[in-house]
Design goal:
The chain is α+β, with helices and mostly antiparallel strands and 139 residues long. It is 24% helix and 37% strand.
């Protein structure tokens, strides 16, 4: 069993791929069969396995969730009460409640068993740059 923490800098809302960083760490742990569990240690960001071949997928996902859960200044969000940390704060919590904050990925012969076009992403839901932590456990 092994664990580490990845720090992922963000520059505002969007999807940030960190597949290669995790793959290097997993490979460095040696050839094994294991389960890799990832958890983002924040309440306003999510984790996704998503297509990494076409950047338009990331653009469209960001646009979809921004439209689905607009800022608290949008008239449709007038019912929100947690607004003192900015118009992106409560919407970020809602998005994180809708999307996964943990992922489990099989590791076979020391490599993550991801599909050809799959990548690991941190989905940042806040506007300001942040340094996000993702804890990883191999067992």
């Amino acid at each position: 069993m092994s664990h580490t923490t990845f720090e992922i800098p963000t520059q505002g809302q969007g999807l940030y791929e960190f597949t290669d960083t995790v793959a290097r760490w997993v490979a460095g742990e040696g050839p094994m069969e294991a389960a890799l569990t990832l958890i983002v240690q924040h309440t306003s960001a999510s984790l996704l396995i998503q297509e990494n071949a076409d950047s338009e997928v990331r653009t469209d996902l960001k646009a979809y969730f921004s439209r689905l859960v607009p800022p608290s200044t949008d008239p449709s969000m007038g019912y929100l009460t947690h607004t003192y940390e900015g118009p992106d704060d409560m919407p970020a919590h809602i998005k994180a409640a809708m999307l996964p904050i943990t992922l489990t990925i099989p590791v076979i012969s020391g490599r993550m068993a991801l599909g050809t076009w799959q990548g690991l992403y941190l989905f940042e839901h806040r506007d300001r740059p942040r340094l996000r932590r993702v804890m990883a456990l191999l067992r």
